[in-house]
Specification:
The complex is a heterodimer of chains A (about 250) and B (about 475). Chain A has about 250 residues and is of the alpha/beta class. Helix content of chain A is about 40%, strand content about 30%. Chain A has one domain: P-loop containing nucleotide triphosphate hydrolases (Rossmann fold, 3-Layer(aba) Sandwich), CATH 3.40.50. Classes of the chains: A alpha/beta (about 250), B alpha/beta (about 475). Bound molecules: adenosine-5'-triphosphate and magnesium ion. Magnesium ion binds near residues 41, 42 and 86 of chain A.
């Protein structure tokens, strides 16, 4: 099992947001997480990535057989975890090129490899830019600075492609994308799918799941996964909304 | 001893030193220079050293620096070091004419004053006073605050040597001129460096002024630079400061600009015990541009004080100030930007910005951008920020596998880069860039001298890629 989350409780500033969540992801699987606004989806994603203020009060996150509750975020990344942010951060003065070169070299150092050569790096950049069809000039700009909403999301997928993670968590990467961009992003993800790599896709829309077909769909409500099913669950949610889930939840 | 008494002790010592030596040391000088000295010492006697009770010095306390015991020499002490060795360095990609000073005095060797093929005169101020008295009568001590600035008066009384440059009308000096001023002595030194730079009409000059120290000995350098930029001339001026933690540098720069001229100064402070950069720019003709930039990276108990005064006298000029600083540990800083727009200076554009990052709770900055405007048709703006490193950006970088230390470096460097990127000469920009990175990584030593590239090439910065070299 690649990721095994057991009875996870996460608090932010003393307020419990994730309240006893279980989730298992095997290599090669695609999981979709859906659920109403403010129920803890991003909190879960950020807790897996290791954000400091997100305190794990109970339970554990087991990744590749190891408890990573206290692992610093950079080590999680170098162990193969990638988070596509719902709200990517703007970093003035740091170009995407330098950012990615640093990141790749940090990954390589962690693995005991020498730094990537400049030609090899540039070839890789070109290759991955094509994959997500992003404009060349974008990579010379500061990270996310002045990017449109869609450009930011494409940039997340570009970084994912560059870093070749084992577990990718994409938090609403489809929000704000036009129809063509959505297809591009989905194609990008599909090209990176292997028997080893797994994806956790947080989304509000079933449309993305037409392109990236999930093995499992989960509904996150009130800090817990309250329902899981196959890809048809997403269609059902799109048709019926969340009210019936909420009712079911309250009855239990 | 009280604060005041200590200051007075050094003051009296200096005044006595002047009186005892004036007849022997300054005897062969033109009369007007001697007159200036006598007036200046009298004024210094009245003013005394600034204290924290005085406007402009409230947050910069000189007590400790002034209470040390200094030696003050009237001639160069170069016999005890191997001067050749000290300045023997190779320069990569950046071809400059180097003028070297050791402990405030021109370093012997080449002729003290050179006239280059284009007519530009470069060399020792001591020699130039004798050789070009008419130039001195027109310019020397003409645009300094000789009636109210204690350090200027002290400097005028004692000054013997420094850099002299005269660029004739219409001459564009191709090679940058680099002044390397090194302090290296086995006793505490008090140095009075004096520079006079004149750019004739339609001329152009790039000047790099480096203040370096080699050992850990205390020093006090009271440096005064007068710069005259005549009609339509262009000056690009860089100050690089990499001094030891027991050094004090008071760097007063007076820029006088005439119509249509451009002057840009950029102070890069990498290390130093107490550094005060006082920059005065007078825009005394129409269509002038002045840019005053600075970046400072301080830690330990270091103190940096950037004071900028820009005087818009005539209409249609612009001035632009940008100072950025990162203060770590117990470092303290001051920024004081004062732009004066006089009644006649319509259509002035003046902008001031000071941005700071404090890395600890104990580091501090006192920042005061200030506009004083008497004209009604102007565009002016000012702003100051004090903050920490952006924690969201830190997490974003770390979530991509970048260690906390390197993420911090990337963000600090990105912050400083805004000023570094304003350096227009690429090899110089690359060198300073490299020094800033080294400084941020804590690897810069005080013997890393300026643009002089000693020893092995800098090691590759792994977060940097230069697309042009691929
Ligand atoms: N830094 C924070 N401080 C305090 N409360 C927070 C913080 N971050 C999130 N929350 C709260 O935690 C709850 C869950 O937020 P989260 O972002 O995980 O929701 P979400 O399921 O991703 O919602 P959406 O679908 O709108 O993206 C919300 O009530 C939110 O206000
Ligand atoms: Mg969310």
């Amino acid at each position: 099992m690649l990721l095994n989350i057991r009875n996870l409780h996460v608090s932010i500033e003393g307020k419990e947001i994730v309240k006893g969540l279980d989730l298992s992801v095997n290599n090669g699987e695609v999981h979709a997480i859906m659920g109403p606004n403010g129920t803890g989806k991003s909190t879960l994603a950020l807790a897996i990535a290791g954000k400091g203020e997100y305190t794990i009060t109970q339970g554990e996150i087991i990744y590749k057989g190891k408890n990573i509750n206290n692992m610093p975020p950079e080590d999680r990344a170098r162990e193969g975890i990638f988070l596509g942010f719902q709200y990517p951060v703007e970093i003035p003065g740091v170009s995407i090129t330098n950012f990615m070169r640093t990141a790749i070299n940090e990954h390589r150092e962690y693995k005991g490899l020498p730094p990537i050569s400049a030609p090899e790096f540039l070839a890789k950049m070109e290759d991955k830019k094509k994959l997500v069809e992003i404009q060349s000039k974008l990579t010379n700009r500061s990270v996310n600075e002045g990017f449109s909403g869609g450009e930011k999301k494409k940039n997340e997928i570009f970084q994912m492609a560059m870093l070749e993670p084992t577990l990718s968590i994409l938090d609403e990467t489809d929000s704000g994308l036009d129809i063509d961009a959505l297809r591009v992003v989905a194609n990008g993800v599909n090209k990176l799918r292997t028997k080893e790599n797994a994806f956790v896709i947080i989304t509000h829309y079933q449309r993305l799941l037409e392109y990236i077909v999930p093995d499992f769909v989960h509904v996150l409500y009130d800090g817990r996964i309250v329902k899981s099913g196959g890809k048809r669950l997403a269609v059902e949610l799109e048709e019926k909304g969340y009210d019936w889930i909420k009712k079911e939840f309250e009855m239990n | 001893m009280s604060k005041q008494n200590k200051n007075i002790a050094l003051k009296n010592k200096l005044i006595n030193l002047f009186e005892e030596n004036k007849n022997s040391i300054f005897k062969n000088e033109p009369q007007y220079i001697s007159n200036l000295r006598n007036q200046a010492i009298e004024k210094f006697y009245q003013l005394g050293f600034p204290t924290t009770k005085m406007e402009g010095w409230r947050n910069t306390d000189l007590t400790k620096a002034l209470s040390k015991n200094y030696n003050h020499f009237f001639s160069s002490k170069q016999n005890d070091v191997d001067v050749e060795e000290l300045f023997k360095c190779e320069i990569h990609d950046f071809d400059t004419d180097i003028v070297s000073f050791l402990n405030g005095f021109y370093v012997n060797g080449n002729s003290q004053l050179r006239t280059m093929s284009d007519g530009t005169i470069v060399g020792s101020l001591a020699k130039a006073i004798k050789q070009y008295p008419e130039i001195f009568e027109n310019y020397y001590n003409k645009n300094v605050q000789s009636d109210k600035n204690a350090f200027v008066t002290l400097n005028t009384a004692f000054a013997q040597d420094g850099l002299f440059i005269y660029v004739p009308d219409g001459v564009e000096v191709n090679k940058a001129i680099q002044m390397v001023s090194i302090i290296n002595h086995n006793e505490n030194l008090f140095i009075q460096n004096r520079n006079l730079i004149i750019l004739g009409k339609n001329s152009r000059l790039t000047l790099v002024h480096c203040d370096d120290s080699i050992n850990q000995q205390s020093s006090f350098n009271n440096s005064v630079t007068e710069i005259f930029v005549e009609e339509n001339a262009n000056l690009d001026h860089y100050k690089l400061q990499n001094l030891n933690n027991d050094s004090t540098l008071i760097n007063s720069t007076f820029v006088y600009q005439k119509a249509g001229s451009n002057a840009s100064t950029n102070s890069i402070t990498l290390n130093g015990g107490l550094i005060r950069n006082d920059t005065f720019v007078k825009l005394n003709g129409q269509m002038c541009d002045a840019n005053v930039y600075g970046v400072y990276l301080m830690d330990k108990t270091q103190h940096i004080d950037n004071h900028v005064f820009i005087d818009h006298v005539e209409p249609n000029c612009s001035s632009n100030e940008l100072f950025k600083g990162i203060l770590d540990e117990d470092a303290t800083g001051v920024f004081n930007g004062h732009v004066l727009v006089r009644r006649n200076a319509q259509k002035t554009r003046a902008f001031q910005s000071n941005k700071n990052i404090l890395l600890t709770d104990t580091a501090s900055i006192d920042t005061q951008p200030f506009l004083e405007i008497y004209a009604d048709d102007v565009k002016c703006g000012h702003g100051a920020t004090v903050g920490q490193l952006d924690t969201e950006a830190m997490f974003y970088l770390r979530s991509r596998g970048i260690t906390e230390a390197n993420a911090k470096l990337l963000l600090m460097y990105a912050f400083a880069a805004e000023v570094i990127n304003k350096i227009s000469i690429k090899p110089l920009r690359d060198r300073i860039d490299d020094m800033v990175k080294k400084r941020l990584r804590g690897e810069l030593s005080i013997c890393d001298k300026c643009v002089l590239h000693c020893g092995s090439p800098a090691k590759e910065i792994h977060f940097d890629i230069d697309m042009s070299k691929v």
